[in-house]
């Protein structure tokens, strides 16, 4: 539960600050789906895109349209969510030790690893949040083989603002979306620039965009790589997204009929000098492969977006065919009505003779994560609570703990955190409480940034309420920026604010929310 610290004065302000801080922009997170939209005392607001209804009769409050994912929480999910026998789990890596996916730890002592074609890879070559396919014995929780294939390795061609208001990356003709759960390695979202080289791992959404779980800044890339589905195939070229690939001189591998065909999934490799931004590439090799979940009877755990939907008996998750089994299928965090195009889900079941995943359990995974960046107020090891700004987050068995400070502890535990440590914290609302899904310890810093929806503005007084947090700029201190980051006047800034506007605020040295921010930007 949310447990305000009763001994602290001004606790209501602390709660408001935290609820605003959930949208901290340390990686320009927060997709158009993201965020808990708070309601003020005189109104009720519905965030229909996230499926969340928020209303209150006094003060700041919130309610939920459906439950939240409890994977890895230590709470029993029921027999239909427990996979057994042998098969595949395909999802992002939670953390290592041996390898943990969806809250389950698989022993990798005897496993083989394939890292982007390197079949001599080891576990040390992988990173948290990369999407992997693990061939496993679920009864013994042992991994036989771990396969990783990046979605993109290439340059950033441009940075864009997408329709939902979140930041997007264009690379090799593909649109890459980051959200609040994206792990940026060796960089931050705001630090990325056109020309930077990146490796991306993620899953495709219903629009064909890559929703990145992992983005790493690379100093150099020997080759550019891209995985995608073919369209507009001719005798010597095809498209992947908006990228036009010339394969006339390429080495073709594993094609059933010798040549690329419409709708096939391939991996394209190219020498960097053979890429002409933003949409022309000469391939050195093109490899055909069939994304597979195994053979008939195999157990499967699959996480992804509903990319095609005809009915609850006929839909696809990241391109894989899925069906439910009527009353034999159980649901968590949603119902049959939750299944629709674009929803993120985890499905557990087995493959039938036609290669269709028959779902015995469906877990709806809302993408409206919450974020906080700042220092720790208190830690309670007895109740596994970590408090920031007077509000507690529950640390569960599935919570990922990482140390990115100079201490760099390899297997950091909650007991290794201290009051005053600076952390990046990601989590979600579970009922009326906050649950931490990821806590990263960082080196100390004084700056604070947060991002959120504008509840109210006072154009005359110049103040803003962002997610219930009152922000009072000072024209002698605060710089105002438009969506492109260009400096504008305070009056111009207010003229851009409309219902649904998102604002990000930054304090270079933060001591109190009452202090004027150093910058305000409209998104």
Task: Describe the protein in words.
The protein is mostly beta strands. The protein folds into six domains: 11-67 and 368-442, OB fold (Dihydrolipoamide Acetyltransferase, E2P); 80-148, no CATH class; 152-218, OB fold (Dihydrolipoamide Acetyltransferase, E2P); 224-288, OB fold (Dihydrolipoamide Acetyltransferase, E2P) (Beta Barrel), CATH 2.40.50; 299-363, Nucleic acid-binding proteins (OB fold (Dihydrolipoamide Acetyltransferase, E2P), Beta Barrel); 448-522, OB fold (Dihydrolipoamide Acetyltransferase, E2P) (Beta Barrel), CATH 2.40.50. The protein is 3% helix and 46% strand. Strand 4 (95-96) and strand 5 (99-101) form a beta hairpin. The two termini are 32 Å apart. Mean pLDDT is 79; it is low at 1-76.
The first-level CATH class name of the largest domain: Mainly Beta
Quote the beta fraction.
Answer: over 45%
Helical percentage: under 10%
**What's the domain count?**
6
Biggest sheet descriptor: 10 strands, mixed
CATH topology of the largest domain: OB fold (Dihydrolipoamide Acetyltransferase, E2P)
Distance between the termini: 32 Å
Question: Which structural class should the secondary elements be placed in?
Answer: mainly beta
Strand order of the largest sheet: 12-13-14-16-15-11-17-21-24-20
**CATH H-level name of the largest domain... which superfamily?**
Copper binding periplasmic protein CusF
Shape: globular
Give me the count of strands.
Answer: 43
Radius of gyration based on Cα positions: 23 Å
What's the architecture of the largest domain, going by CATH?
Answer: Beta Barrel
Mean pLDDT figure: 79
Q: Please, how many helices?
A: 2
Low-pLDDT sequence parts: 1-76
